[in-house]
Design goal:
- The complex is a heterodimer of chains A (227) and B (224).
- Chain A has seven helices and nine strands, in the order βββαβαβαααβαβββα.
- By secondary structure, chain A is of the alpha/beta class.
- Chain A has a domain of 146 residues: P-loop containing nucleotide triphosphate hydrolases (Rossmann fold, 3-Layer(aba) Sandwich).
- In chain B, helix 5 packs across helix 6.
- The model of chain B has no long low-confidence stretch (mean pLDDT 90).
- Chain B has one domain.
- The chains are: A alpha/beta (227), B mainly alpha (224).
Chain lengths: 227, 224
């Protein structure tokens, strides 16, 4: 499917997620255009991570319809998604390169050079033989990002990618995400540090109590500019 | 992405991790060793009596020891939520199921190899029947234990009391297979009766539960 700004990368129609009587998402209806970097903001328990997990296919919505890249069959678009969670989603007993080589195989990628390239892209040394269990938290976060971008996804879902990362590294990661967005990828980023993304984010999506309560388009021309 | 290709890389990854940590093998070996030693000191058996009860003893020891490995194999996937990385990928669920089952099969097979000399020494065992039947019984019995154990291990993985839940589900469903394993082993060791029927039963049991596991594993894997 060819994506145009009128043809959303992700579309949610009345999507809810219930855990017993608790609603983690409440009738969320929203379209997200391709090639944009969305900041998902809100307090703890607002439903930000649940929204990402629903789009990633890790959680089945209780109600509503989810369309990704024009398809409502999640299996069909799995190869185009990249997901990074709070946890590292890496094996502590393996080195960074071994981890990436394994996950690359799950996407049918056999070129080891691509793994080394992904590790280099996030500012780590691909020749490092140390096991991930011995990595610092910041290094794990960066390797986790490398895992998420390994398959060159069209949609990237990042849950708190900057937690425990030093400011310098976070800025490097931000620049990388900006360039990925510029290359046409759609990025959803949950964070409590929106200041880091200033100038990079296209839109802020505010959530509260499982609902999208406000969307602020940072690229829309302001009234001043229009004048 | 072929089922076999991902099966191979997942199995290689599991074997490499076990080689480095030795979590499953060490805990299984320690547990099985305790059972062998404690039982050998608890009973003063003649060679004939040993042959009569050894089948049951061997398989109960292996069943309990296998549960330790089965819990370990899934606990690894739960740490750091690595299983979610598999779930978001387009890799087929069947590859993961088969890789885990074959991995567990190899771990229990290594345990069997290490424990066999100890059983022979401690229980003064000597097979009256053909040894190849014992080999066949151990291969089929091993697969029967791990195929169900891997499947139910994946079900119990996300529960709070998974260490308790796995044996609670696994043991009752393994009873028919356990009876056949014990029957085949005892009749071979003693030379009394035929091991043919229990071995055929084990073969059918293995095929049925492997197919059921393959068919249902995607639902288990994608469950929240």
């Amino acid at each position: 499917m060819t994506l145009t700004p009128d043809n959303p990368a992700v579309s949610l129609n009345d999507v809810s997620k219930l855990y017993g009587r608790f609603a983690a998402l409440r009738m969320v209806t929203a379209d997200f255009a391709p090639g944009r970097l969305y900041l998902i903001l809100g307090e703890n328990g607002a439903g930000k991570s649940t929204l990402l997990r629903v789009i990633a296919g890790l959680i089945e919505p209780s109600h509503g319809k989810l369309t990704i890249l024009g398809s409502s069959d999640h299996k069909a678009v799995k190869a185009h998604l990249g997901y990074m969670a709070h946890a590292s989603m890496l094996y502590d007993e393996l080195s960074g390169r071994e981890n990436l080589a394994y996950f690359a195989n799950l996407y049918g990628i056999r070129e080891h050079a691509l793994c080394a390239q992904a590790i280099r892209t996030v500012g780590l040394d691909p020749t490092l033989e140390r096991r991930v269990g011995q990595y610092s938290q910041g290094m794990r976060q960066r390797l986790s990002l490398a895992r998420a971008i390994l398959n060159d996804p069209r949609i990237l879902l990042l849950d708190e990618p900057f937690s425990n990362v030093d400011v310098g590294s976070a800025k490097e990661m931000t620049r990388l995400l900006g360039s990925m967005r510029d290359s046409g990828k759609t990025i959803f980023l949950v964070t409590h540090q929106p200041a880091l993304l200033e100038g990079f984010a296209d839109e802020s999506v505010y959530m509260s109590a499982g609902r999208v309560i406000e969307r602020v388009d940072h690229r829309a021309p302001t009234l001043e500019a229009k004048r | 992405m072929s089922v076999l290709g991902i099966l191979r890389t997942t199995l290689a990854k599991d074997l490499r991790m076990e080689w480095r940590s030795k979590d499953a093998i060490n805990s299984m070996l320690f547990f099985a060793l305790l059972v062998v030693v404690i039982f050998s000191f608890s009973f003063d058996l003649t060679a004939e009596e040993s042959r009569q009860i050894a089948g049951g003893l061997i398989w109960v020891a292996l069943l309990f020891a296998a549960v330790v490995a089965l819990n370990q194999t899934w606990a690894r996937e739960l740490r750091n939520q690595v299983l979610d990385a598999y779930r978001v990928s387009p890799a087929p669920a069947e590859s993961l199921f088969l890789a885990k089952t074959i991995g567990n099969f190899l771990f229990v097979a290594v345990l069997e190899l290490l424990m066999t000399p100890l059983f022979i020494v401690f229980y003064n065992l000597r097979s009256v029947g053909p040894v190849h039947q014992l080999v066949l019984a151990s291969l089929l019995g091993n697969w029967a234990l791990v195929v169900n154990g891997t499947f139910f291990g994946a079900i119990s993985i996300r529960t709070r009391s998974r260490e308790v839940l796995l044996p609670l589900i696994l043991f009752p469903i393994s009873i028919p297979a356990l009876l056949a394993m014990v029957g085949a082993t005892t009749s071979t060791l003693t030379g009394e009766g035929s091991a043919h029927l229990p071995l055929v039963f084990l073969g059918v049991y293995d095929v049925v539960f492997t197919l059921v596991g393959l068919f249902l594993f995607e639902t288990v894997l994608q469950a929240e």
